[in-house]
Amino acid sequence: MTLSPAGRLGCTYPLGCDGAVVPTRRRCLAHPATSAERFSVRTAIVLGLVHDFRGVPFTAEAFADLRDASSAALRSAEFDDATFGEGADFDGFEFTGKTSFKGARFHGRASFENVRFFGEVSFVDASFAGSCSFDGSTFHYDGTVFASQPRTVDRPSADFARVACAGHLSFRGVWVAADWNLSGARIDGSVTVTARCEGSVILRDVRVSMSTWITLNAPHVDCRDSAFDRSSTLRLSNATLTFDNAMFGARSSVAHHPGTLTLPRAPDPGAATRANVRPRVVSMRHVDVSPLLFVELDLRTCLFADVHNLDQLRFRSCRFEEPSPGRFLGMRTRPVRRRVIADEVASPRVEPSSVAALYRQLRKALEEGKNEPGASDFYYGEMEMRRLPEATETTPAERFLLHVYWGLSGYGMRAMRALGWLLVAVTATVALMMGLGLPDSDPQQIVTGTLPSARGRVVLRVDSSEPELTLAVHDRFSAQRANSALRIVLNSVVFRSSGQNLTPAGAYIEMVSRFAEPLLITLAALAVLGRIKRG
């Protein structure tokens, strides 16, 4: 007997082999000394006495012996550092115990379709020279579904850390009972995943050279430090998503998967119909989002402070945080319905000027997509941040103007507020006209002149009397005077006509109304236009 580099008993094959030997034999499964020894090895596999295949260089004949003898069912199986020279077809296998393919090398196509793993599974550092498929496979952990308390990354049930694949890697229709670890994987081909996982899906530091299609139903998906060189499509449901420092090299999308992910081989098919909620983005620090499209994501807790090229992010129907009550002149006001980013309400509070810059970038992203109504909420948020006392880039005079602008029309975004002030202004103007601006009656024309005693030229001068208001205060407020005052206000404000018979005070009141009330009408019109404009 010889020892392999790993310290275990090695095969005595004359040409050298590190494969684990069969009990009571001196050769590994791939190198039986005689046909009788080959038969005895097959018998040992049938009886479940052989489960150590570490380092075995599987040929097509040796793998056929394994498949035929096992009847596609193995207990605990160790294939660490094994090599499969002509591909490996484990389709339909059932591994009832702990299974390990650590460091295994597959030189041809590898197929694990419809395989059932009962116990911890490890493909750490495995490499696939061709394509690899796990379609329809299920990963159990002692037959238990960890739906409410997912296992930690320290003890994943399906460990594919640092897997290397030169071809297409496929996980279609896969179900995983606990955590699923694919961290450090290197895929030179494309990746297709359609899976349901009851624990966390770890995709940290993954590198995919070709296109990626991932559809997942999982409590948490971790894509930190990963790189997707080509277009990628991530469709998620019931998941929290973290992808700090991730890189996307082409147009990619992260979207909510609205349908139920039904997997026939899953042991709990009813779980697929549980409430389908939007995926929630937890963090995306230092991510260049210019190639990304977000569709129906929950962004209420996501901070945008360290995101790159935020003004180029494309998003549709995403959910943002609700606003907190505001303050005006020290008084608490009811919150205005709008979309709020988490940076505005974060604790400790982010500097308002920085938050205003984030709102400005998000507004630009929507405006460039011809969605001006959607951008109005972010314009409102930008103005709110500039109005705060903590905003260092806003001068006191500018802050005062912003308070006035907010109070009159909600920064030109709240039509009802401007119309309300217009109604107040018109009512006040009518009241002032009744009390101070309308004279007692229309002025009478007075003709004065001198008649000469002899025939001569007659000179007449026509004067108008000055408008006077001498009525008692209680007589000034009548229905007739209210009607006259209203007509005068509408004529001067709406139709811009002049030449009304007013007292000196009424003339000044009209001047103020001719400036202020059309301004309020303009603000209301701009607010309505901002809400209905489409490109």
Structure description:
Residues 1-7 and 143-155 have low confidence and may be disordered. Helix content is 27%, strand content 22%. A hairpin with a 5-residue loop joins β1 and β2. The strands form 6 sheets. Strands 4, 7, 8, 11, 12, 15, 16, 19, 22, 25, 28, 31, 33 and 34 form a 14-stranded parallel β-sheet that branches. A 9-stranded parallel β-sheet has the order 3-6-10-14-18-21-24-27-30. Strands 5-9-13-17-20-23-26-29-32 form a 9-stranded parallel β-sheet, with no helix packed on it. The chain is rod-shaped. The longest helix has 29 residues, at 504-532. It is built from 10 helices and 38 strands. It is of the alpha/beta class and 535 residues long. α4 (352-368) runs antiparallel to α5 (372-387), α7 packs across α9 (479-493) and α7 (415-437) packs antiparallel against α10. The relative contact order is 0.05.
Task: Briefly characterize the structure.
This protein has 535 residues and is an alpha/beta fold. 27% of the residues lie in helices and 22% in strands.
Give the tags.
535 residues; alpha/beta; 14-stranded parallel sheet; nine-stranded parallel sheet; 27% helix
How do the helices and strands line up, and which of them pair or pack?
Elements: E1 2-3, E2 9-10, H1 35-46, E3 57-58, H2 60-70, E4 73-74, E5 77-78, E6 83-84, E7 88-89, E8 94-95, E9 99-100, E10 105-106, E11 110-111, E12 116-118, E13 121-122, E14 127-128, E15 132-133, E16 138-140, E17 158-159, E18 164-165, E19 169-176, E20 180-181, E21 186-187, E22 191-197, E23 200-202, E24 207-208, E25 212-217, E26 220-222, E27 227-228, E28 232-237, E29 240-242, E30 247-248, E31 252-256, E32 280-283, E33 292-295, E34 314-316, E35 326-328, E36 331-333, H3 342-345, H4 352-368, H5 372-387, H6 396-409, H7 415-437, E37 445-450, E38 459-464, H8 473-476, H9 479-493, H10 504-532
Parallel strand pairs: 3-6, 4-8, 5-9, 6-10, 7-11, 8-12, 9-13, 10-14, 11-15, 12-16, 13-17, 14-18, 15-19, 16-19, 17-20, 18-21, 19-22, 20-23, 21-24, 22-25, 23-26, 24-27, 25-28, 26-29, 27-30, 28-31, 29-32, 31-33, 33-34
Antiparallel strand pairs: 1-2, 35-36, 37-38
